[in-house]
Amino acid sequence: MTNTRIPLAGVIGHPVAHSKSPRLHGHWLKTYGIAGHYVPMDVAPQDLETVLRTLPKAGFVGVNVTVPHKEAVMAIADQITDRATLIGAANTLIFREDGKIHADNTDGYGFMENLHSGAPDWDAKAGPALILGAGGAARAVISALLEAGVPEVFLSNRTRVRAEKLRDDFGKRVQVIDWVQAGNVVENADLVVNTTSLGMVGHSELRVPMDGLKPSTVVTDLVYAPLKTKLLLTAEEAGCTTVDGLGMLLHQAVPGFERWFGERPTVDSATRAAALR
Ligand code: ATR
After folding, report:
1. Are the CB atoms for 43 and 66 separated by under 8 Å?
2. Measured from the CB, is residue 165 less than 6 Å from ligand 1?
3. Fewest CB atoms less than 10 Å from the CB: which of 53, 98, 182, 193?
4. Cα–Cα distances in Å, from 114 out to 1, 25, 251, 254?
5. Does domain 8-104+253-276 have CATH number 3.40.50.970?
6. pLDDT tens, position by position, 74-125
7. Which pathway is recorded for this entry (predicted)?
């Protein structure tokens, strides 16, 4: 590939039509006047490796990876960052000029950037965090929080054994709390994060009691449809600072865009509007 070729990137999922990434990257390409393209690609699991090996030859410089391929790409990638290894999944692939596929996970980075911008006064080292859910998103959030210096993580998941596995992988600062007891530790938490799909349009509501919320607690929800979930509305009523989940989606896309297109994009209100269109 010569340097004069227009860089191509995209998102691989199955299905992929729901992805906000093409609108987001399209907005940044236009904003920065970059001659590049970002396209959605619906790829079935059995075709994943063939597609990933073919795309660089067609001028692709990398791709985002979404459900259900985030774990499967780990077995295909030639190089994997430590944070992707710890999480066990990748969302950003860089196709290097030597033909190697480099895999990273930027979800934890996106979570922290969103949290810092929505709750600038939150201090990671000040107190414990309560994390609801123990899926892939929770792994990314917890690894980022532990790296930021959170002293203790209370982790609660419907399927307790999944939370226990996560604790075994992440160490002693993670304490597993029964799902039905999660409400009991709310008053001890400086940060509450919902990483489950509860509260999302078309899903059940999150029913963990939030009576213990104190105004100094920061509450964030990874769900962004609706933008204001019941959890965030309850937290607002309690006087808490709340952070919605859309910003995490926007911020996690920044490192990939910068690597592929050579410009570090800004996440601002225009970016949010573009992703919501
Ligand atoms: P993601 O990668 O987005 O985290 P996931 O790995 O499928 O997706 O995890 C979904 C999370 O939402 C899990 O913590 C799941 O709990 P289980 O491990 O018990 O399945 C949680 N979740 C989904 N539906 C739920 C429900 N109805 N009640 C409680 N937790 C639920």
Report:
1. no
2. no
3. 98
4. 36, 18, 7, 12
5. no
6. 999 999 999 999 999 999 999 999 999 999 999 999 999 999 999 999 999 9
7. Metabolic intermediate biosynthesis; chorismate biosynthesis; chorismate from D-erythrose 4-phosphate and phosphoenolpyruvate: step 4/7
Query: CATH 3.40.50.10860 region(s) of the chain?
Result: 8-104+253-276
- Average pLDDT for residues 256-274, to the nearest whole number? 97
Place of tokens 């896309």: 253
Task: Give, for ligand 1, the residue of 196, 201, 208, 221 to mutate: max count of ligand atoms closer than 8 Å to Cβ.
Answer: 196
**CATH 3.40.50.720 location in the chain:** 108-243
What are the helix (H) ranges across the chain?
21-31, 48-54, 82-87, 107-118, 136-148, 160-170, 230-237, 246-252, 254-261, 269-276
Q: What is the pTM of this model?
A: 0.96
Mean pLDDT of the chain: 96
Average pLDDT of the segment spanning 219-245: 97
70 in active site = yes
pLDDT single digits (tens) 131-153: 999 999 999 999 999 999 999 99
Q: Kindly provide the residue ranges of all beta strands, DSSP E only, lying in 142-227, ordered along the sequence.
A: 153-157, 174-178, 191-194, 218-221
Beta carbons of 39 and 18 less than 8 angstroms apart: no
Residue 142 near ligand 1, beta carbon < 6 Å: no
**pLDDT score of 1 more than 80:** no
Ligand 1 atom with least separation from CA of 222: 3
- Ligand 1 in contact with 91 (CB < 6 A)? no
Q: Is 37 helix (H, G, I), strand (E, B) or coil?
A: strand
- Residue 200 pLDDT > 90: yes
Q: What is the pLDDT of residue 2?
A: 47
Q: Is 82 annotated as a binding residue?
A: yes
Which CATH fold topology does 108-243 show? Answer: Rossmann fold (3.40.50)
